[in-house]
Amino acid sequence: MADTVTADDLFDAEFLESLQRLRLVAQRVPRGGRFAEQRSKALGTGLEFQDYRPYSTGDDLRAIDWNIYRRLGRVFLRLFEELEDLPVYLLPDVSRSMWVEETPRAHACLRSAMAFAAIALGQHDRVGVFPFAEDMKPLVRPRSGWNSLPLFAQAMTKLEPGGATDLSRSLRRLEGMQLRSGLVVVISDFFDPAGADAMVTALKRLRHKLLLVQLVRDSDRDPQIQGDVRLRDCESGVDQDITVTSQVLDRYRQAYDNHARILTDFAQKRRIGLVQLNVEQNVVEQIATVFEGGRYHA
Fold first, then answer.
1. pLDDT class for 9, splitting at 50, 70, 90?
2. Do residue 80 and residue 140 come from a single domain?
3. Which helix (H) or strand (E) holds 150?
4. Which of 63, 101, 120, 237 is the most exposed place for a label (fewest CB within 10 A)?
5. How many domains does the structure of the chain reveal?
6. Which domain does 198 fall in, by range?
7. Residue 91 and residue 139: Cα distance in Å, rounded?
8. What's the pTM value of the predicted model, to 2 decimals?
9. Percent of the chain beyond pLDDT 70?
10. Are residues 128 and 254 in the same domain?
11. Are 123 and 37 in contact (CB under 8 A)?
12. d(CA 71, CA 80)
């Protein structure tokens, strides 16, 4: 099993500098936030004009459009779109399987979490980190401010391999926290013993917006093995002796494709983001391609 990462692996000057142009922008966020660079459903005394409505007793007189009053003799208020922060809840997968292989997926997973944290904090959003494996526990409670980034880096470098993946249980724990509605970013390979259907069912129950970041590598669909081999489940530790033939590999690819199709169909039907990151390539460069023009609209 691979060693945990160091602070320099996740949080160096070059890494942070490469994130400066990325901006995480939400089209709408719920009421109740503080001022930031995200659009809100609330209409009040913001910056961008949205609509008019008739004056009601107690309304702010400064919002009256006197030009309309002079023309029509009726009192209307100008309504502007408020700007608020977007709560961003990062869920990196730290299950045991993420820490195996020569280049552990956990490294790319935590770097991705750091990237999204930096992006959101740079937009004055509140960010929390909730690693999951067999369960989910808060690592960093939601907080804002670019100066908080070193805290996120320090906390994530202390993470250790968890147990088996249980996304359903982890999401139930997240919902039980009654966090303010926001954007949940799940960063995982999405290999769960319960299967893709169970994961999708759990994701459907979330009242938050979703962004799924799927960590992949080329050998996931096309493993370079053949003949008589002993495979070990990297989460349960159970060994299985099998003979790998072309027919066995074909059935495996069919199962892999079906798993991917279930996840993709869910994302498309719900109109949520699904981003694939190759763990053997530069994470920041891949995320940069997602943020066309420097912005990602969640």
1. low
2. no
3. helix 149-157
4. 237
5. 2
6. 7-30+87-297
7. 10
8. 0.78
9. 77
10. yes
11. yes
12. 21
